[in-house]
Amino acid sequence: MKFISTLIGFIIFVLFFGFALKNSQEVDLQLFLHYELRGPLVLMLLGFFVAGAVLGVLALTPTVFRHRREANKHKAAVHTLQASALQANQPPQPDSVPTQ
């Protein structure tokens, strides 16, 4: 399995490397207030991809922390219930079946 994942990773690397070699021409990025960025197309694409990934992670951060906080509350509640069940130490109640 490790060999297959290494092989797939190598193939993806070769594909991206070929993409980078084919897209090495200079591009101009026009920004506001007459600012201009100039660089290879592949670096511009890589920069915007990284920026998008970072923004996506930052957007998910509050949700992840909220779910983690709720999970900790539930774990504490389960622990409290288990501790109280061990302290009760009462025999189980018999079934309530009428006898004739």
From TrEMBL:
Keywords assigned: Cell membrane, Membrane, Transmembrane, Transmembrane helix
UniProt entry tagged with the keyword Transmembrane helix: yes
TM ranges: 40-65
One cellular-component annotation, GO: plasma membrane
InterPro entries with a match to the protein in the record: LapA_dom (IPR010445)
Lipopolysaccharide assembly protein A domain sequence ranges: 22-83
Name of the protein in its database record: DUF1049 domain-containing protein
